[in-house]
């Protein structure tokens, strides 16, 4: 809420002009980099400080869901393609492309397998989802995990942007093997 007030002040607007986003009934289907709601029914929303405490405890599985752009299909022969490196929270598992509003069955399977690995198959194991600030991918992924039956779900809306802002450590991570092609 402080960030909203600061942003409003910086833009010369009253804070009410930047109204909060309402939590939708279903998954967000488009415009994934946009302001997110302050809530997610069934999940606990945490800020950077609380996420850091959970990370330090070593008892919570951290799941990064930042999407990865696919390799363009019509690159000239001989073009070298390098995926953009992902710097994430140390110890997090990176499951790209699982936060879209509608995902293919192969993506559901990839997501479930990643969650199973991160939680050792325990639906009660605490799991925290994040991406970047104002990224609906983490909101969708956390909502989907709740639908899968996970009972202790944390959502960290500021993601690695909020984490880095407080100078918490980041490390380069690789996506979990078996990643489906982006939606």
Automatic annotation (TrEMBL):
Domain Rhodanese residue range list: 89-172
Signal sequence, start to end: 1-19
Keyword ATP-binding: no
Record has Membrane as a keyword: no
Keywords: Signal
Entry superkingdom: Bacteria
NCBIfam families linked: PQQ_CXXCW
Name by which UniProt lists this protein: PQQ-dependent catabolism-associated CXXCW motif protein
Species of origin: Rhodovulum euryhalinum
């Amino acid at each position: 809420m402080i960030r909203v007030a600061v942003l409003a002040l910086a833009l010369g607007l009253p804070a009410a002009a930047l109204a909060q986003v309402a939590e939708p009934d279903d998954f967000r289907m488009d415009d994934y980099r946009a302001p997110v709601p302050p809530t997610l029914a069934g999940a606990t929303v945490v800020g950077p400080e609380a996420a850091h405490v959970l990370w330090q405890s070593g008892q919570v599985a951290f799941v990064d869901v930042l999407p990865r752009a696919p390799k363009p299909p019509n690159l000239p022969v001989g073009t070298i393609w390098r995926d953009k490196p992902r710097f994430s929270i140390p110890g997090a598992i990176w499951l790209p492309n699982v936060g879209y509003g509608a995902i293919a069955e192969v993506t559901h399977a990839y997501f479930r397998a990643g969650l199973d690995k991160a939680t050792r198959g325990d639906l009660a194991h605490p799991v925290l989802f994040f991406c970047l600030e104002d990224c609906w991918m983490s909101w969708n992924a956390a909502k989907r995990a709740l639908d899968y039956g996970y009972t202790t779900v944390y959502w960290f809306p500021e993601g690695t942007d909020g984490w880095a802002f407080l100078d918490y450590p980041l490390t380069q991570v690789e996506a979990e093997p078996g990643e489906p092609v982006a939606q």
